[in-house]
Design a protein that fits this description.
three-stranded antiparallel sheet, single chain, about 350 residues, rod-shaped, mainly alpha, Substrate Binding Domain Of Dnak, Chain:A, Domain 2, 2 domains, two-stranded antiparallel ribbon
Length: about 350
């Protein structure tokens, strides 16, 4: 706590060298405050109204300062903490201040819980046949066909990857045995012609195998994009459509229940509220239904066009390789802009996209 000393600053009012300090003889006295809680010493003129500082409650268990003056420091700086949410200044010792926290939004949590319960109840009721379900037979048939197609294309992708792995091992074997033939030439001069002929044959097989690997890799990339990107994106739209259908049916069944129940004033008011929500869910369901049909149409057109090109390329490359026609294989690779790489190279220089292979 600070202390206040009555000091005559202008020298008047002193009694002939006496050390006594008077507060009445000087017409204009000034007061100097020495307070540990104030950063700088301030001087106040007694010609202006004086307001005493507020004594903070530090270490006083009762908080009772009956004899302490009250007021403020005028323009003196004040400390304090700012609460997290209100932004109001809180004075006092920092250890005695608790930051307020915003309570959880119970209404939003309640609304989310009620909606999820409603949709889960609708799904369970449909499973046990206790409630009706809106069915679009034509669209449901198309969705089921797409599910079967995804399984079939997924199986084809798995086998194409296995084929690539086996041919990669075969080409590696051609390269290794060709290297052995060339090494043995210097150690068996009498077999030089035969060893060189075999090394040349293995080199041709290695080159053609790398070309076929490039074609298989392009085919695998196209199938992977079709199954895991294009079809998967369509299924995301289908999932949103199916969820909106459940919401639509849940509110439709609630409205049917209220219409068939007692026509009380409470039920009538609740029916009016549900009809507004039901109309919103109906519009959302119809929009997603239209989006799903559009996605299925685009997927069907793109899949047919791109896979036709990829299947023709794959067939031509396989025929050229197994017939030993290296020139034809090179033409196929050039026609479809397929890059090949050495088996010993690191990384993958072939970058083909399902949507890009649209020649």
């Amino acid at each position: 706590m600070g202390s206040y000393v009555d000091v005559n600053l202008d020298g008047s009012g002193m009694n002939n060298g006496s050390d006594h300090v008077t507060a009445t003889s000087a017409p204009a006295q000034k007061y100097v405050t020495f307070d540990d809680d104030i950063p700088n010493t301030r001087t106040y003129d007694n010609s202006q109204p004086f307001t005493a500082p507020t004594v903070p409650n530090y270490g006083n268990p009762t908080g009772n300062y009956s004899n302490a003056p009250t007021g403020n420091y005028g323009n003196a700086p004040t400390g304090g903490l700012v609460t997290q949410n209100t932004g109001q200044q809180v004075t006092g010792h920092p250890q005695n201040v608790c930051l307020t926290m915003e309570p959880p939004k119970l209404e939003q949590i309640k609304k989310w819980t009620v909606q999820n319960y409603k949709y889960t109840k609708q799904l369970v009721s449909e499973k046990f046949g206790h409630s009706t379900k809106t069915v679009d037979k034509e669209l449901d048939v198309r969705i089921e066909e797409l599910r079967l197609s995804k399984v079939q294309y997924g199986n084809m992708l798995r086998e194409a990857r296995a084929m690539y792995a086996r041919f990669e091992a075969l080409v590696s074997t051609h390269r290794n045995i060709r290297a052995q033939f060339q090494t043995l030439i210097s150690h068996a001069p009498e077999l030089q012609d035969q060893l060189q002929a075999n090394a040349t044959t293995q080199s041709i097989l290695e080159k053609n195998g790398e070309g076929l690997l490039g074609a298989i890799k392009t085919f695998v990339d196209s199938l992977n994009t079709l199954v895991n990107v294009t079809i998967q994106d369509t299924f995301l739209t289908i999932k949103n459509y199916e969820n909106s259908r459940v919401e639509y049916d849940a509110y439709r069944n609630d409205i049917d229940t209220l219409q068939n129940g007692p026509q009380t004033e409470s039920n009538k008011n609740k029916l009016l509220e549900l009809q507004v929500i039901f109309e919103n869910r109906r519009q959302k369901w119809e929009k997603l239904k239209s989006d799903t049909n559009t996605k299925l149409d685009l997927l069907g057109e793109n899949r047919s066009m791109v896979m036709k090109t990829q299947l023709e390329m794959f067939n031509s490359a396989v025929i050229a390789y197994f017939s030993g026609n290296g020139d034809k294989l090179s033409e196929v690779l050039a026609e479809y802009h397929i890059k090949t790489k050495k088996i010993s190279e690191e990384g993958d220089t072939t970058t083909n996209s399902f949507l890009a292979r649209n020649e």
